[in-house]
Design goal:
The structure is a single chain. The protein is mainly beta. The protein is built from no helices and nine strands. The protein has one domain: Immunoglobulin-like. β4 and β5 form a beta hairpin. The two termini are 24 Å apart.
Length: 128
Amino acid sequence: MTTAVTNGIRVSVRVRFASERSDTKQGRYLFMYHITIANEGQHTVQLMRRHWHIWDSLANVRQVEGPGVVGETPVLAPGEHFTYSSQCDLNSGLGRMAGAYTMRDLVNNTMFQVEVPAFVLTYPYLAN
């Protein structure tokens, strides 16, 4: 598990190769990732936007940006957390993702960035 804390917001990422949904002979490598966002700060916050950098060893870097995550813009009071799952497809068995969430502090109505720590997407049989 990979974790980063920014401005009192803890982001933890767990990733796995989805062999049941991949077709490695056709160059389709699918990875599932599970993210937990925990508010360890003093104010209630809302996740407004996401921005991802996706590196694939056989493709150009992709940028993904948009509102919320998985169709939601969760509100987290101090001590609360939100967990979601999503996926990323690569043309190769080796890649990496990193990014940031734009959060709104609902107490003072300010926006701030929260780091999503870089995590590696690795086909588990790459060494074989």
